[in-house]
Each structure stands twice: as structure tokens, then as C-alpha cells.
Here is the input.
Amino acid sequence: MKQVIVSGMRPTGKLHLGHYLGVIKNWVELQEKYECYFFAADWHALTTKYDKTDELRQNTLDVVMDWLACGIDPEKSVIYVQSLVPEIAELNIYLGMITPQNWVERDPTLKDMAKILKTKEGQGQQINYGLMGYPVLMSADIMMMNSDLVPVGSDQIAHIEITRDIARRFNNLYGEFFHEAKPLLNNCALICGLDGNKMGKSFKNDIKISDTEEDTAKKIMTAITDRSRMKKDDPGHPDECEVAFKYWEIFGNEEEISTVRYECEKGLRGCVQCKRQLGEKINSVLAPIREKRKYYEQNPQEVEEIIRDGSFRARQKAQEVLTQVRKLVKMY
Ligand code: TRP
Ligand code: SF4
Here is the structure.
């Protein structure tokens, strides 16, 4: 019996290289060894963007298209949309009943979200009941498939800890049933944004999987380099080249990386030329992914079918779990 993996993303729009390298690439590998469930968390998107629902459907399609383009395979993994699996909402109710209020109030990720909402960027939004329930809903996502492992970034660990506490509480109250899901951190190096800060769409420092080659090349030209370098034949310092060289280390092969290092240190390579080459390199790595994405953009009905089929399969599993849960809780 394979172990079960569940992971999700809020559909906030087209994904960037940080998502690809930090999350999706890892998912692609996991689907070989585990029973995998990957979903677009559209209810979670509503916890803060309940007033922007016009974009939700397209954002969900975009996220799924990016996954498919990157190699998430609907033959190997179950790809679904959270709100198409209403069993999750029912499980959310049972879990909410057994979750002490202070467990969710303590959740550091939620505290951060609340802080952002109160700022100008968040337009002084209120914290709604639904947002308070974020960690419980996330527990329902995970426990719905009786998951063993949850691949997430380190910012999500607190959520997984609450999930484990809720699962324990359920098992103590109603009988041993749920597995205690563990976070699965991947140890790949994080790619920074073009300005050296964390890559994010709101910081306008990102490269999208779906960007054109021209856009990518242009964006790369803005990447931070060795700030101490004045002229192009000054000896450079790759290790102080905050962004461009780091990208080379991610996208180049060993030979390319050592050539760039050598030529930079000897003053044989100017930063403009170096970044032009880097843009070409990144474009060539992304070419097959972008080609696949184009295919899905031109065949959106195929994406719809994958979502319908995956959500159907997710529901079958969810219904099995829910039948057990209802029995254990002694519902009518
Ligand atoms: N909270 C996650 C994020 O913001 C998304 C998410 C929702 C999730 N439900 C999940 C991740 C269940 C893993 C498992 O990225
Ligand atoms: Fe960075 Fe390349 Fe310029 Fe060296 S030549 S500082 S590696 S951009």
C-alpha cells in the first residue's frame, strides 16, 4: 500500500519559477512513489479574496495548466478543485467542533495573514470567521484523503501541526481512524526574485512559467549582479553576484557554471553579455514546459475534463473516508 500525499495551492494566478522549483518539481517526483492528490484550494482563496470571485475560475484553470505543463500527470496523480469535493466541507464541520478556539488563534501563519489584511495592501480588511477557520479547513483537506505526508513550504508547518493535533483529538474522542500527517519539506534551494528578495508576484520580481521568451529575456536583464563591478572587464565576483550567478547555478550545467565563474573572475565576461546568455539558457530549460502549456491553453476543454475526472476520483476517496467518519461520530 502506497502512502498518501495531499497538497494544494490557492489559485491566485499564473505561477512563477519559485513555485516551479520550490513546489511543483518536487510534486512531479513524488507522484512516482506515492498515491498523490493535488488540488486548487479555491475555498482557501475565498478566505481573503471573497470580493474578487470574478478572477477565481480563470486563476484555477491557470494553476492547473501550469501543473500539467510542469509534468503533473493526471494518469499518476489525482488533480482536483477543492470546491468540487463538497465532502471536504462536511468534514470541516466535524473538525471545527473539536478544535479549541485558541489552537487557531495561536496559528502563526494566520497571525501573519491577519497582519497583512489590516495594512493598506489588505485595504484594512476585517478578519472573517472563514479566515479564522483556515487551519481547520486545511486539516479537512489533508484528513479527507487520510493523508500520511504533506509536501509544503516551511511557512505551512504550523498548519500541519494543528492538523496532527486535530487528528489526535478526533482519534481520542471517536476511535482510532486518522493517520497523523507529517510535513514533507523539500530541501531544494529557493530561487530569489530578480531584485534579490523573495520571488513573488506582488513584488513584481518574478518570472512566470507562462511568460514569453522575449519577456523572460527582458526581465533577466534587470537581475541584480555584482554591485561592486563598474566596467565590463573589471574582475567580477560571482559569489557576490546576488541574482544572475545564483540563477546560473540553478539552470546551468556544471561546465557552464564553471565557465561563467572563470570568465567573470578574469574580467572576460561583461554582465550584459552574461545575462543575455542566461536568458537564453532559462528559455531553453523552460521551452518544453511552455510548449506543453500552449497545448493546454489551446485545448481548455481537455483541462476541464482532467479537473472533472480528478474531482470525481477525489470524491470517491472522500466518500469512503466520510462514511467512516459519520459512523465514528455517530451521525444519523
Ligand atoms: N495553505 C496552503 C498555501 O497557502 C494551501 C493549502 C490549502 C494546502 N490546503 C492545503 C496545502 C492542504 C497543503 C495541504 O500554500
Ligand atoms: Fe554576475 Fe555574470 Fe556579471 Fe559575473 S559576469 S557579475 S556572474 S552577471
